[in-house]
Amino acid sequence: MKRFFLALLLGIVPFASNATHVMGGEVTYTFLGQVGSNFQYEIKYAIYTDDNSNFPNGIPDINTGIYDKATNTRVGNNRNLQRFDSAPVTPDLPPGCTVPGLGNLSLTLNEFRDTVLLPGTFSEYFTWYEVCCRNNVIDNLVAPGSTGNIFLNSMAPNFVRNTSPQFNDLAIPFLCAGDTTSLSNNATDPDGDFLVYKFVDNNNSQDAGPGNPQPTAPFNYNPSLITTVPWSAGHSLINPFGPGSYAFINSTNGFTEYYAPNNGEYNLTIEIEEYRDINNDGVEDLIGTTRRELQFFVRTCAPNDPPEADDVVVNGNPIPTINGTANIDMNEGDILTFNVNVTDDNNDSIEIFMEGDILDGTNGYTGPLATFPSASGNGAVSSTFNWAPTC
Hints:
391 residues, mainly beta, 47% strand, single chain, eight-stranded antiparallel barrel, globular
């Protein structure tokens, strides 16, 4: 019997966030192959900035280091990465939707890439870049204007031949105050590794300047020196948007739900742990971590009732949905077919779509693909899910 998670996302759209400095992002890497006794990787930084700040044209370059986790020493010299690409990013709103103040936002996604050769090791490497500072109007952190961002990624040992998870969406979510919003935060893993998602505290930069790499000479690092930014009064990892708020994350697929009762700007970090049975002993080993820092923009939206979906009915039996996830048990060879019907009392423009490994063949799934055509319209839409799995 196979169990899979079905996440149905209704009218979910990522929105932009407002800031005065650096707005978060992530660092990922891709394994390119072995060159002699060394191992080649492409490292990519994605960093969001506000054009109405001390980065009006984005970040032109970053100075970053790579460290051996076994010895905490730097491998080679610091690397100065020139910006590979930059692009303005704006909310992807469906037709007819408006957001107050959205026209005042001017955001840039800065992308940096570097190809590196690393010596073989049975330990791990980690990439390190930090920059000052966050914007000083973030509500859930203490003294945010004097704290910076750490872009840190833990790489698997060379013999594992690993590529980190890759995020499929932008890191600039928008929330309506007093409303519940769901986001997929979906990442794909080219190696098919088992991914575990969780919220973590925001790392605090040690850097007092605008972009100097840490550690400084003699370039040895003690991981215990990593600190986190204190939460401001009434905020925590459980209630990141203040009293009465909440943030939920499904550890297996990254599906998140947020509720923010008040306007403001807030920071929260998602960490993905990557597991693989590297010793063939039936034990999943932690081989790397990838972090993404998000800055949320919360504003009052026009009153609007969310769209409603009928219960998923399989073989005449309704399937309950809890926190956006419906669990369905089925056997090899079974044919699973059900309709998804969504209505909106305000006759708004709505879209339904599904995401998952069994629909696109990501994260190592090689079986028959399921189908679910996306659908959009005003007031009411529907589509049909079909899947016939093998063992």
